[in-house]
Amino acid sequence: MNEIKENILGDIEKVEPLLKVDGLCVSFDSPNGPVPVVRDVGFYINPGEIVGLVGESGSGKSVTALSLLSLIPSPPGHITAGRSIFEGNDLLKMPNKRLRKIRGNRISMIFQEPMTSLNPLMSVGDQIAEVFRLHVGSSKVEAKELALKMLKKVQIPAPEKRMKEFPFQMSGGMRQRIMIAMALCCNPTLLIADEPTTALDVTIQSEIMDLIIEMRQEFGSAVLMITHDLGVIAETAERIIVMYAGQIVETGSVNEIFDAPAHPYTNALLQSLPVLGRRARFGRQRLQEITGTVPDPADLPAGCAFSNRCPNVQDICKDTSPLLNETNIQRSVRCHFPLTLNSDGEA
Amino acid sequence: MSKPDIFPNPLPLLSVKNLCVNFGSSAHPIRAVNDVSLSIRRGETLALVGESGCGKTTTGMAVCGLQNLTSGSISFDGKSLQDDASMTHAEQFAYRKRIQIVFQDPNSSLNPRMNLATTLEQPLRLHGATKVEAQQRADWLLEKVGLNPKHKNRFPHEFSGGQRQRIGIARALALEPELIICDEAVSALDVSVQAQIINLLVDIQEEFGLSYLFISHDLAVVEHIADRIAVMYLGKIVEEAPWDKLFSNPQHPYTKTLLSAIPVPDPRRVRPDRINITSEIPNPISPPSGCSFHPRCPAVMPQCNIDAPKLEALSDTHFIACPPAVKRHQAGGEA
Prior knowledge:
heterodimer, A: 347 residues, 15 helices, B: alpha/beta, Rossmann fold, eight-stranded mixed sheet, 32% helix
């Protein structure tokens, strides 16, 4: 184990991750005291890679992302512990003034609902130009030109006309393109995309996914893709982090996670999905259910958070929380009895 | 899981003919549903799929009487639901209970100030059950949908999303309906809960011989649950086929586009060439002339912007509204 640990540390130094999050804990105030919603979350993102953060609603994936940029409202939210090292500096300790220079510049974010994250009273051209004015210090005219260039990059038809339009005049897909354009203005090294396609129709979703991948290639940004949709993750991400009840339960490359999920939760999640084409091949089979529901973060089961729904639960699971066991730098699982690691020693 | 064979009765349970629903002023109507015809047999699941704004929900609302029709007719078990002259008010009331609906969002479709018992017993009482009967039926219903009858006095906020959807289903089942309209009934649920509800819907269908009009945008769920599928685009049905035909051999360019766009949770899958459509869904206030899909269609032909296509039969069960595709099909280019 120690050997492995050393190897991991060695590897990290070699690759030099762009972002390294360590022991992040976030809790929210409630009438009955603080409720932990993110518990000891640690992960890394290498330059230029797409990492998928998957989890159901309430698993803490969005809070994790927002905390990285100190964007959770406080109160009620508090970051109680952890580090988030970005380009050598701890984002969580950074004063707001410096952080503001990083947000939207080195790290930018796109959200699920573009309508609520765009300013409804400002033309989209001005909104994009504002980014250049603020972060690049361009003149008014310059900023306008650059904004127009960005609109062209994200393939908005008739960009000159669209510059003067307001968000309400655009469709959902178009607004998401605007968000992406704004996010990429300053050539960010990290793009955080929080459910970027969830509110969109499937034909538009596929276009936006393609656009994000294309833009990644052009700008070389790393992408943290947050979603609950395993289909979207399978088609975009290279590495996956699975969250459940505020904790990371499994990490691995996209193929590892989909071929040989080690955590019973990941496995159950994959089994419970209706997959296109399965009925044609195998006939209609009953979907595998996960019994019960996601636990309330204020009332987590003792021991493993998944223990009350796990098909393979043993006595130890009910009172001892499993640790996140790392097989190698990118593969880890938080389970006493991991599925694939059990049988042949590695996934 | 094979279904009981479909029924000697050739008469469909639900038959919708030339349904039109317009919104807005009559001078500039938005044709939300434009000449839609469909039918559902007993025990059958017809899925209605399409992107947001295509009119699938409005169609469902019209079928269960929550939306006035502009024109067209809906008949249920051989009787027209519109024609007031042919049916007394009491008769209509009795018919209504045979069609029920499960909504997408259980948070907004359950009365927050009504406990479970009232939610379930009220419709029973309205339709003539005694208090004791209603209570017994409510207990039975809760058990059927996997909830504890002891929780009858709780209010909706005390349940999780999945449980609330079970309540919605129990409420829909209360009056022993023959047709349930599931309007995106599983879309708002978490992945791990979605499977529970889909299985429940399949189970109660088998047990009670229900018919479903299953409205959804999620084609993977639709493939799992549907017998037949109708694809809607801008208020019109563009393709209708049995589920296996639709997925294995889609004919309408829009259906093909839709299928190619679905992300599949299998990283090793080589995605069939994604058919990219460049422009956005047109504004229904001023739909394109001719075929409403032509501005986005990858296989557009010169005549497509002139004539509005009609549904044509490729076989007994497969219909599409795309003359060029019909021609290609007849020429045997794409079997």
